[in-house]
Amino acid sequence: MCDEFSDEQETGAELGDKLGLSRRDFTALGASVALAGCAGSAGGGQGSDLAERMVSITTADGVCDAFFVHPAKGSHPGVVMWPDIAGLREAKKVMARSLAARGYAVLAVNQYYRSSPSPVLESFAQWRTPEGRERIAPMREELTSEAVTRDAGAYVAFLDTQDAVDKQRKIASNGYCMGGPFTVRTAAAVPGRVGAAASFHGAGLVTGAPDSPDALLAGTEAAYLFAIARNDDEREPDHKTILREKAASAGRPAEIEVYDADHGWCVPDSPAWDAEEADRAFKRMLALFEGL
User: Quick one: which of 88, 165, 205, 220 could link to 187 by a disulfide (CB 3.0–4.6 Å)?
Assistant: First the structure.
């Protein structure tokens, strides 16, 4: 869906100003204005309240670099965070810190590790360029359902080796855009361990294929949040109904809602970022994760 909505969300010079942020400027923005919702303030992410580091995770296909952030003291529920199409970058680290500050050990992964270490792109703005799309295209091809499922198992296993992760509580997953369906695959990869999955403006949740995410719900033990963008719903109005029917048939608790915002609204360097709806979605995720 990122491809389909890129052009219609273009706003010219104003958008360039919004998205043309350096890492330093973006971090300062997150700290100074306490970004709401999915990109909310990290509550001192650069200070002593949170501990963070880049980590390397061995998978069946190589070594994934990931950003691991958690409260500096104690053990907490683990979360596998799947970025959108632009990959692991400063915007995603801000988002991971925000969730970690609420009491979670968050692993934000580089889904493109087979091709390149992160950041593959510095911002969502770069994805919107011909060069950015050309760079990402072959990397996307490697993210088959089988590859994502293998990766998910490795990420959950990594979290279970960390002192900062409470092994007595379930692990969660959250994902954005292309990462939305990966949350379901995470729940299917380790069903006894993953207890919650939150998809925000997820693309490809209902594909009709035998291994479509909606078809996997019955093999999971998770509760779900499917937060759908209004323009995604306009194009595929039957998908929310299918998700509801599949979740009900599988006996899986699922909150499925169309938000009053467009595809990408939860991500602060997206042209569709909507602070109010992002905040509402973030709070619904926190409510879901309380059950871990």
Answer: 220
